[in-house]
Specification:
315 residues; alpha/beta; seven-stranded mixed beta sheet; Methionyl-tRNA formyltransferase; Formyl_trans_C; Formyl_transf_N
């Protein structure tokens, strides 16, 4: 089939590579200009450079809503558009233009985790598995019929980076497998149960700020979800920003006020956590490694030279 590819960052790069390695003919690529957004500088393999290396025409757009792009798409005469990590809304006149419509590839097990940063949100929420879904695009965000979907388990120590590597390897088989079904003439696919749908926004630095009223189990997953190369979780100690690089759920139960620097436990320092911490039934978050405002990394037992005082959400 003649394919136009819309995509960005490493997700788009992997999708384009899979298409280039397949029997399909990539006739045009549309991608975003480079961005300085903290999250968009991560996993930033260039779709444009890969396309140019293979002699595929490239259009750079922030949004796909101009007449020039529409005319170029009509000239390309695609059988299908394949999209992965396209960051803005694609209008119906675009996604409905090809003979077979538009196949969107999304790194979540739809209908849950539509929208942005699905792996990070899924890890924070303690999901047992994550995956990749190829679905037909329609008027709603990530809501079209599912053509192919594959899942991988989330391990107890997995970071968002681990989940990225697990799921990015699913892009090629999911995408090419879905295109094979469409090319073979299949038109009926699995409808999404919209009662199970959930939608998530783009993450920002604000979303990495620790709220000590969260349970320690949730905070431990947040730390793993925001591990390198993502912007680390952070809190404030004595008015200065302190990044939390590694932490575990404490063995002991610590009662009192959320954020209290309480007790050395093994290689970590236990912090009281949870909105109902006053009951004394909660585990704490045992911080094991930190980064100070001036960029120094150290173990928590080295940083916290004495117990007492509080970690806070604001300076």
């Amino acid at each position: 089939m003649r394919v136009v590819m819309f995509g960005y960052q490493t997700w788009g790069h992997r999708t384009l590579q899979a298409l280039l390695d397949s029997e399909h003919d990539v006739v045009l690529v549309v991608t975003h200009p480079k961005s300085e957004h903290a999250y968009e500088k991560i996993w930033s393999d260039s779709v444009a450079e890969l396309a140019e290396e293979h002699g595929v025409p490239v259009l750079l757009r922030n949004r796909p809503d101009d007449d020039e792009l529409f005319e170029r798409l009509k000239e390309a005469d695609p059988d299908i558009i394949v999209a992965n990590n396209w960051r803005t809304w694609i209008p119906p006149r675009i996604f409905g233009l090809p003979r077979h419509g538009t196949l969107n590839v999304h790194d979540a097990l739809l209908p849950k985790y539509a929208g942005f940063s699905p792996l990070i949100w899924a890890l924070i929420n303690g999901e047992p598995e994550v995956g990749v879904t190829a679905h037909m695009m329609n008027d709603e965000l990530d809501a079209g019929d599912i053509v192919r979907q594959e899942a991988v388990p989330v391990g107890p120590a997995d970071t968002a980076t681990d989940l990225f590597h697990k799921t990015v390897d699913l892009i090629a088989p999911v995408t090419i497998g879905a295109l094979g079904l469409i090319a073979a003439g299949q038109t009926e696919f699995t409808k999404q149960d919209r009662s199970r749908a959930s939608f998530f926004h783009k993450r920002s630095i604000e979303d990495s700020r620790i709220d000590w009223t969260w349970p320690a189990e949730d905070l431990e997953r947040l730390v793993r979800a925001q591990s390198e190369p993502y912007p680390s979780t952070y809190t404030f100690h004595k008015g200065k920003r302190l990044e939390i690089l590694a932490a575990v759920v404490s063995q002991g139960r610590y009662g009192g006020t959320p954020g209290r620097i309480f007790y050395r436990e093994g290689d970590g320092v236990a912090i009281v956590a949870g909105a109902d911490a006053r009951t004394g039934r909660n585990r704490g978050l045992a911080i094991t490694r930190v980064r100070t405002e001036d960029g120094r990394e150290m173990g928590a037992t080295e940083y916290f030279t004495s117990m007492g005082g509080y970690l806070t959400s604001r300076p």
